[in-house]
Design brief:
single chain; about 325 residues; mainly alpha; CHAD domain; 12 helices; globular; CHAD_dom; CHAD domain-containing protein; CHAD_dom_sf
């Protein structure tokens, strides 16, 4: 059912728009938490179902947290800030295990694609071509690089999994779950929430949109971009977060996501993934006493992921619906 649109129904109060959205997200949170607990037992379907439930838990946490941040003037300020902070902690803690697993898969797939089927050493030497020797060397180094990345990222994932389990069993998490359970039935609105939605929700939603447009306009252009300058990644990561906040605000005031932002959002997700994968490859290359072939393969992998960073930026520019904002500089 479509929720009221504050831009067309001026007689609808801010509370009448905001409260149902927050209650719906709180219900999704509690449903995902129940599914996660039910599927955490060691069964054939358990791990995959638990991972899906954890993903849903993160999504509802982000939406509640983002909504509390954008529309805090319509809510009890102290309650909103406390719950927003705790939900940000929870979603960040739960996201790390998934991120390490996805990063490892991405890097191993990229290594396989870069090395292909390695030439046998004898054949590589008889070929005499530098390309054949390079491919053979990359094949040997890629296998060792893959093993190194698997050790490092699997260890990081294991630690993140332990941290997530510890968080879900902590008194801090139980306090968060209790707060969300109360939110599912009662939203602590401020007295100002009785004002028209167009007035009280429209302004913060517009501010969220303007912050996003300003961030996009400030992004480096193709001409000035340095593909191997990781310092340039930060504005893109910030744009991704601002796009997320704008999307959530649009869901609140319009009742549905803005479909034209799906493509740019996906491109920014790919940008984040490639940037973090490149950083992981660079970190692995700094491991003491690794073989030259391993270091070489990790260097090629780092370059490949930085190329993917540039490709994601190009896709973002192509799919961004307000082209003028991308090139303004």
């Amino acid at each position: 059912m479509r929720r009221p649109d504050h831009q067309t129904q001026t007689d609808v109060t801010a509370g009448a728009v905001l409260a149902p959205y927050l209650r719906s997200q709180a219900a999704d949170f509690l449903r995902s938490l129940r599914l996660h607990r039910e599927n955490s037992a060691p069964t054939d379907a358990g791990p995959q179902a638990a991972e899906q439930a954890a993903g849903a838990l993160r999504r509802s946490s982000r939406r509640i947290s983002g909504t509390l941040h954008t529309f805090r003037t319509a809510l009890d300020p102290l309650w909103a800030e406390q719950l927003r902070t705790e939900l940000a902690w929870l979603s960040g803690t739960l996201a790390r295990e998934h991120a390490y697993a996805e990063r490892l898969n991405r890097l191993l797939d990229a290594l396989h694609g870069l090395s292909g089927t390695p030439l046998p050493s004898a054949r590589a030497e008889s070929a005499g071509g530098s390309a054949a020797k390079e491919r053979a060397g990359l094949g040997v180094g890629a296998a060792r690089a893959g093993a190194l990345l698997e050790r490092q990222l699997t260890l990081a994932r294991t630690r993140a999994h332990s941290a997530a389990l510890q968080a879900l069993g902590s008194s801090r998490f139980h306090a968060v779950a209790d707060a969300v359970a109360l939110l599912a039935s009662e939203v602590p609105l401020a007295p100002s929430a009785a004002a028209p939605a167009a007035e009280l929700l429209g302004e913060p939603a517009d501010r969220a949109e303007q912050r996003l447009l300003g961030a996009v306009a400030a992004l480096s252009s193709d001409e000035t971009a340095e593909p191997y300058n990781e310092a340039q990644d930060a504005p893109w990561h910030q744009t991704r977060l601002l796009l997320r906040l704008h999307r959530y605000a649009h869901e609140v005031v319009r009742g549905a996501p803005d479909p034209v932002l799906a493509g740019p959002g996906h491109a920014l997700d790919l940008h984040r993934d490639a940037s973090e994968a490149a950083a992981a490859a660079a970190s692995a290359a700094r491991t003491p006493r690794i073989a030259p072939a391993t270091a070489y393969a990790l260097g090629v992998l780092h370059a490949d992921q930085r190329h993917e960073v540039g490709a994601a930026r190009a896709v973002f520019r192509e799919t961004w619906p307000y082209a003028a904002a991308v090139t303004a500089r």
